[in-house]
């Protein structure tokens, strides 16, 4: 009798086990999903342009999550991160499919806003360039 009960419990336990399926990557952001490190900056200042490399110790890592949410290297989202951006001239409306961890409570905070979209141009599978508030940052894909 105890053997029958044990088999039933084992069967029940095995049928209720499931692996967490990885989240599906939204098709419109599939090319940029993953981890990126800044390697070069360009600052537009009136008629002049300043460009230079970014040393690794000063570089910024960003992660585009499966649903388009942009996070920092620690997996947190800083205040002021855009909910809409242009990816290769296509408007992407970020619709989170999972909770967004934030570095702090952003209620009532106002950040720097520009009258333009946060722009992302994917130049290759391993290179993107972002542009916002007259600053361009070149990122390379990280593994």
Task: Describe the 3D structure.
This protein is mostly beta strands. The protein is 10% helix and 38% strand. The protein contains 1 helix and 9 strands. Strands 1, 2, 3, 4, 5, 6, 7, 8 and 9 form a 9-stranded mixed beta sheet that branches. A hairpin with a 2-residue loop joins β1 and β2. It is globular. It starts with a helix and ends with a strand.
Short description:
The chain is mainly β and 143 residues long. The protein has one helix at residues 2-15, and strands spanning 34-45, 48-53, 61-64, 70-72, 84-87, 90-93, 118-124, 127-132, 135-142. The longest helix has 14 residues, at 2-15.
Mean pLDDT: 82
Distance between the termini: 54 Å
| Helical content (DSSP H or I, runs of 4+) | under 10%
Low-confidence stretches: 4-21
Strand content: 35-45%
Counted beta strands: 9
Largest pleated sheet: 9 strands, mixed
Number of helices: 1
Radius of gyration, in Å, reads 21 Å
**Class per helix and strand makeup:** mainly beta
Characterize the overall form.
Answer: globular
The sequence of SSEs as H and E is: HEEEEEEEEE
